[in-house]
Amino acid sequence: MADSSDGRPSGVIHDLGYRPYAGPRLGGREIAWSFFVTGLRNTFGLGRSGRSKVLPMTLFAMMLLPALILVGVLVQAKDVLGLDAQIVSYSTYPLTTQLLISVFVAAQAPALISRDLRFRSITLYLARPMPRTVYVLVRLASLAAATLVLIGVPLLLLYLGGLLADLPAGRETGRFLGGMLGAVLLALLLSCLSALVAALTVRRGLAVAGVIVVLLVSYTVVTTVQGIAVGTGHPRVGEVAGLFSPFTLVNGVQRALFDVPRATPTPPAGAAMGALYVAVVVLVVAGSVAALLARYRRVSP
Amino acid sequence: MTVIETVQLTKSYPSVTALDHLDVTVGPGVTGLVGANGAGKSTFIKILLGLVEPTSGSARVLGHDVVGEGAAIRARVGYMPEHDCLPADVSASDLVVHLGQMSGLPYAAARERASDVLRHVGLAEERYRPMGGYSTGMKQRAKLAQALVHDPQLVLLDEPTNGLDPSSRDDMLALVHRIGHEFGIAVLVTSHLLGELERVCDHVVVLDGGRLLQASATADFLGATGSLLVEVQGPTGADRLLGQALVDAGYAARPAEGTLVEVDVRDDATRDVVRDLVVDLGLGLVRMQERHHRIEDVFRG
After folding, report:
1. Does B102 sit within 8 Å of A31, measured CB to CB?
2. Taking 90 as the threshold, does the pLDDT of residue B265 lie above it?
3. I want to staple A176 with a disulfide (CB 3.0 to 4.6 A). Which of A35, A159, A200, B116 is the partner?
4. Which own/partner contact pairs does A24-28 have at CB distance under 8 Å and 24+ positions apart?
5. Residue among B46, B75, B81 whose CB faces A129 most closely
6. Best mutation site among B103, B116, B146, B181 for testing chain A: the one with the most A CBs within 10 Å?
7. What domains, with CATH codes, occur in chain B?
8. pLDDT band with cut points at 50, 70 and 90 for residue B49
């Protein structure tokens, strides 16, 4: 090998030959967990290139900013303004920030779902012990968990701020848990729908556009219809329209279950409409998962 | 030790029979799977991985049944697909570590193994660059590394030399030979080019239209079609003199390249007869070598 100028050998590579692996081999549960964690990290750009961290991290920061300001106002000016509750309720916060949440899901679902199909790297997973169904469900779980972090952490911030501002702890905890249940439902709905759109197209750009259309356009149409419904005195029409956007749907479920403050012009009124809202959430999630599994059954290794 | 064993293995699709009552046994070392495109090679591999169910018949890999024990097989088998399967935005190092974990290695072990196998396949500093910028040769090496990362007992290599220039092809074949002999990992390697397999394989299985055409040791193939090339020294026309003498003695002999004489090996005594005839004719025997026949000759016969 080459000697450096001072005469000592440098850069010597010893070929140790092939060394077999005799260490432990993990089972299916640990493999799935490791796959889940990797997917969750990747959704925030961790373990990926620096460029892919920019968008998710920026969106996450923008999600936290309003919560921070609200907490600041609540803690500092509670007595001045005569506040005895959160300025923006836990159930309303995701609606206020729905644009950020939609962009996050639209950008990250293709990164997680379409990528393996586009590069056909899914073959490398299928040739490993994890079954196809588990692959699909874990991918979905990673996306849902990442979306839950995005929606849930600001709510947690609001909750801690509320406790700091001496809001009644029992009442606040109940409302927070209700808000978190809503966050879980919303994260599930959004990731199921966006994963389905992303799995139907291998082109990243198309997938992003598809998810944007499904989430943003549906929300805009729903709120418009609800506005018109109230204006023309047909609230029932607005209540039905609320079923067609994940954001208004989940807010309606929280309104029906926990009687949270109204965040849309026409929240579901009556037990029957409330039950319909809950049923639609269950149906959409179950239907999307079934459609996803059917889609992946057609992927040839 | 039997690595792969199939009994009357059949796979029918609605329009075509991909595998037709195949009885194949594969042992340690390097086994070549030869056949034209569409001969059933890839279907065979996918059945061995437990990814495609056979229509009838059975197959066992490493003692596990391909139906029902696919996960156990995939945990100890490496697979290098024929098609592109590498995500462009990830480095070979990151991908191989991740896939090592997906095969059940703990993170630290996966990192160590990935570094080892990337060195063995010859990916140096470029392993840290995104694979989108790789040459075909580098991509094939990365694909091979991910198939080896979990120290499998068997690797299935589907057309590993596809698209490579002659020198990368030689490197890849040398690597395949090392895996089978130095690493102690059984190899099943497919190719539609017979010439390259005979250089590295101990055994060759020939598929044609989903049926087994021939399965035997590579040496048997070459021996059965062998002939001798003889070069003699003497007056002009010495080669024709020898050729005539051989024909008179009842051997099939013909002129070969230059002034060489080619004579078919009939039995163990053939070489002695050639030597004696050369001496009787008063010529000098310069060399007598086995003609390097190709497996292709089996098909020509």
Report:
1. yes
2. no
3. A159
4. A24/B106, A24/B109, A25/B75, A25/B103, A25/B104, A25/B105, A25/B150, A26/B104, A26/B105, A26/B106, A27/B104, A28/A129, A28/A130, A28/A134, A28/B71
5. B75
6. B103
7. 4-222 (3.40.50.300), 226-300 (3.30.70.100)
8. very high
